[in-house]
Amino acid sequence: MEQTFAIIKPRAVADRESGKIIDMIEAAGFNIVAMEKITISPAQAQELYAEHKERSFFGEMVQSMTSSPVIIMKLSKDNAVLAWRDLMGATNPSQALPGTIRAIFGKSIGENATHGSDSLASAARELKIFFGGCC
């Protein structure tokens, strides 16, 4: 069983779409190993998106992710990283396949409802940022 990291982003939480997204996660066969509603600190957001720090959108992304509560999750399933990315859909909701989370709940590239690790290495790093040695 692989584990991956997931976030339901601020706008989706504020719009009360979390329950529907969690239902989709469970219906897709994921085990939610850990879940917490938090407000991400600027330091956590900067560490999470460190690979983008030189890009023009970095500051806006950090500000958006720290603006209000999110739901963080540790998900478990066979091929969890790929399965979560498939369930989320493309980063740009207008390019996401019908029935994916981002196609249903995403508003734009910046407000695409969810975040997910893109590799096992990223999942391990991101899980450590938010869950430490927990779970």
Model description:
With 135 residues, the chain is of the alpha+beta class. It has a single domain (2-131), classed as Nucleoside diphosphate kinase-like domain (Alpha-Beta Plaits). The chain is 41% helix and 19% strand. The chain is built from seven helices and four strands. The protein has helices spanning 10-14, 18-27, 42-48, 58-65, 80-88, 101-105, 120-131; strands spanning 2-8, 31-38, 70-77, 114-116. It has a four-stranded antiparallel sheet with strand order 2-3-1-4, sandwiched between helices. The chain is globular. The model has no long low-confidence stretch (mean pLDDT 95).
Helix content: 40-55%
Outline the biggest β-sheet.
4 strands, antiparallel
The end-to-end distance, rounded to whole angstroms, is: 14 Å
Please provide the ordered H/E string of secondary-structure elements. EHHEHHEHHEH
Structural class: alpha+beta
Could you say what the CATH architecture is? 2-Layer Sandwich
Give the number of DSSP strands.
4
| CATH hierarchy class name | Alpha Beta
Would you identify the regions where 5 or more consecutive residues have pLDDT less than 50?
none
Enumerate how many helices there are, as a single number.
7
Q: What would the average pLDDT be, to the nearest integer? A: 95
Query: How many domains?
Result: 1
CATH superfamily: Nucleoside diphosphate kinase-like domain
The CATH topology is Alpha-Beta Plaits
Q: Mind telling me the C-alpha Rg?
A: 14 Å
Question: Any idea what the shape is?
Answer: globular
Going across the major beta sheet, what is the strand order? 2-3-1-4
Percentage of residues in DSSP E strands: 15-25%
